[in-house]
From TrEMBL:
<dbReference type="InterPro" id="IPR014825">
    <property type="entry name" value="DNA_alkylation"/>
</dbReference>
<dbReference type="Pfam" id="PF08713">
    <property type="entry name" value="DNA_alkylation"/>
</dbReference>
<dbReference type="InterPro" id="IPR016024">
    <property type="entry name" value="ARM-type_fold"/>
</dbReference>
<protein>
    <submittedName>
        <fullName>DNA alkylation repair protein</fullName>
    </submittedName>
</protein>
């Protein structure tokens, strides 16, 4: 990937433009893999990914491009990537944004007002472009690492961000915003914070779409990995109202006798 002559701030690295990334990725087009991805991500008429376009690039290859360009792509250039009709190019944009958030986290436990301000700016940028995360992989590879991480640390005003944003996302009319609302909590679960996941999961119990059932069950399963008792208490209160798919995902890591117990009770 060729780089421009502009330096990336005090990093001493050259800026990378959206045009350079797009050209590199378009040169990697693979027609056979494109067909595979279109089927896998359900792009046919009437399916959840209807109309999405693929170049046929595997995720590891996209990650390699992101690794080369990380922290060297300006926000306006990331916005151009997110505006692309090509799925993989949008993924590159979201992964670059996740790298920016990673670089803005406290270092060795030390936070600064400038890092906090940067985290808030990145989160707001992501939310403004959330509609471009219009398939499940784009959500799952970005939401925990951007919104989830942002919620873990104080903003520039010294206060934790309002986690009501998760409820706002989960209540959105758009399927993908709703999935962001539940999947973002993965970052919180990994820090032993499960209350937000349980609240959002309950809000989504009566959702009609299988992709939300799967995401909710997945997050409940992660809760169970951190705190098995917490998951069992939640199941006892809500198993009758849970979609079958959500229940199956939630109990996937339980011993077989416990899995059968919950399936038979529903």
């Amino acid at each position: 990937m060729k780089q421009s002559s502009h330096t990336a701030g005090n990093r001493g690295r050259q800026r990378v433009t959206a045009d350079e990334i797009i050209a590199t990725m378009e040169d990697m087009t693979d027609e056979k893999q494109r067909e595979v991805l279109c089927r896998f991500f359900k792009t046919a008429p009437g399916q959840y990914g209807e109309g999405d376009k693929f170049l046929g690039i595997r995720v590891p290859a996209t990650r390699m491009i992101v690794k080369e360009a990380r922290l060297c792509v300006a926000p306006d250039q990331i916005a151009r990537l997110l505006a692309s009709p090509w799925h993989e190019i949008r993924l590159a944009g979201f992964l670059l944004l996740a790298e920016e958030m990673s670089a803005a986290l406290p270092r060795r436990g030390v936070d600064t007002p400038s890092l906090a301000a940067k985290r808030g700016k990145i989160a707001r940028f992501y939310l403004a472009h959330a509609s471009r995360a219009n398939n499940w992989d784009l959500v799952d590879l970005s939401a925990p690492y951007i919104i989830g991480r942002w919620l873990l640390y104080p903003d520039a005003d010294g206060k934790l961000p309002d986690r009501g944003i998760l409820d706002t996302l989960a209540s959105h009319s758009d399927l993908w915003h709703q999935r962001i609302g539940i999947v973002a909590t993965l970052a919180l679960i990994r820090q032993g914070q499960t209350a937000d996941t349980l609240r959002i999961a309950t809000r989504l119990l009566d959702h009609r779409h299988d992709l939300i059932h799967k995401a909710t069950g997945w997050m409940l399963r992660e809760v169970g990995k951190k705190d098995p008792g917490c998951l069992l208490e939640y199941l006892e209160s809500h198993f009758r109202d849970m979609p079958r798919t959500a229940l199956r995902y939630a109990i996937e890591r339980l011993p077989e006798p416990q899995r059968l117990y919950w399936l038979k009770r529903q």
